[in-house]
Amino acid sequence: MGFSGRAIGWTIVLLCVGVAVARVGPSDSIDITVLVNNSAHMPAIVLRQAESEAGRIFAFSQIQIGWRDCAPGLLTKDPCQRGPGENEFVVHLVPTGQTSLDSMFGIAFVGQDGDGKYCDIFLDRIQETVRTTRIGLGQLTATVIAHELGHLLLGSHSHSFFGIMMPRWTQEELQRIAMGNLLFSKEEALRMRMRLQSQERKTPNIALETRK
């Protein structure tokens, strides 16, 4: 995920590296856990704002997020010192972007089979955009996190023509982020819940982007 553009004509491009569906009732709500590794040292109050807002975005899709912040150092009880379990995902806030395109906000790591557990968020690039817009740091970070988690929950090729999963965010989408109403579509929400519930039903015997 990333961004591109200048004062006028902002566009945001969101990147996913890498859609399976099952059957679930449209009203079913599913819980997931997100492990947050704050290597970028984002202030705790801003990180709480970002987690709360990202959780609110997913709540509209009837997905409830439990946030687990990783502890610094090698603590044996730190959940980030083990691999993510069922319906667990990892968000890694890094201080500087690590892609060839300096406009990228983050990246979700999704395999050819559509499965993924990890995403990186590039704080420096988000901060640059915040300085030239009226969007708060916590709010924009939350929307970037939601987009990248969307890739992990929807699988590969999960960009959309509208909403939070658009590959490019225009000025209109930036305004919607500021107002807090850039969300997943109803179809995306259903697909995410179906995918999560399908994984919950698996047993050990079954083989198992932003620019300006």
| Low-confidence residue ranges | 3-13, 16-26, 203-212
Helix content: 25-40%
| Ends apart, CA distance between termini | 11 Å
* CATH architectural designation: 3-Layer(aba) Sandwich
CATH class: Alpha Beta
Which strand order does the major sheet show?
Answer: 3-7-8-6-4-5
Annotation field: number of helices:
5
Main traits of this protein?
212 residues; alpha/beta; Collagenase (Catalytic Domain); 6-stranded mixed beta sheet; two-stranded parallel sheet; 32% helix
Overview of this structure, please?
The chain has one domain: Collagenase (Catalytic Domain) (3-Layer(aba) Sandwich), CATH 3.40.390. The strands form 3 sheets. The chain has a 6-stranded mixed beta sheet with strand order 3-7-8-6-4-5. It has a two-stranded parallel sheet with strand order 1-10. Strands 2-9 form a two-stranded antiparallel sheet. The protein starts with a strand and ends with a strand. It has helices at residues 44-59, 123-131, 137-154, 171-179, 186-200; strands at residues 2-3, 12-13, 15-17, 30-38, 63-69, 88-94, 106-109, 118-122, 168-169, 210-211. 32% of the residues lie in helices and 20% in strands. Strand 7 and strand 8 (118-122) form a beta hairpin. Residues 3-13, 16-26 and 203-212 have low confidence and may be disordered. By secondary structure, the protein is an alpha/beta fold.
List strands and helices in order, with pairings.
Elements: E1 2-3, E2 12-13, E3 15-17, E4 30-38, H1 44-59, E5 63-69, E6 88-94, E7 106-109, E8 118-122, H2 123-131, H3 137-154, E9 168-169, H4 171-179, H5 186-200, E10 210-211
Parallel strand pairs: 1-10, 3-7, 4-5, 4-6, 6-8
Antiparallel strand pairs: 2-9, 7-8
